[in-house]
Amino acid sequence: QVYLVESGGGLVQAGGSLRLSCAASGATSGTIFSISTMGWFRQAPGKQRELVAAVTSAGSTNLVDSVKGRFTISRDNAKNTVHLQMNNLKPEDTAVYYCNADHPWGEYWGQGTQVTVSS
Prior knowledge:
Layout lengths: L2 E5 L2 E4 L4 E8 L3 H7 L1 E7 L6 E6 L5 E3 L7 E6 L4 E6 L8 E9 L2 E4 L3 E6 L1
Parallel strand pairs: 2-11
Antiparallel strand pairs: 1-3, 3-8, 4-5, 4-9, 5-6, 7-8, 9-10, 9-11
């Protein structure tokens, strides 16, 4: 079993920054983390969950167009963590942000962290 725990959410004014972190733990977390594509998803009230950013095990990154130039995803395989640096936040970025580990045998999800951007 692998557990993903997000942190770093909160309330920030438009134009501000937050850094989300996701730490993987559990008996097989090191192996699973190293082979997983790690992603950050978000879900706003009344909307479907959407992929925001992802980083493969090789380090290749992908971001949704709406956050390009503002968000950066990175991973630290030695610490089994993935980060989402969010700059120039906008009210439309308000959502619950979820960490995801996608590996060949399935996927794991974190419990989510709330990000609220005030105008």
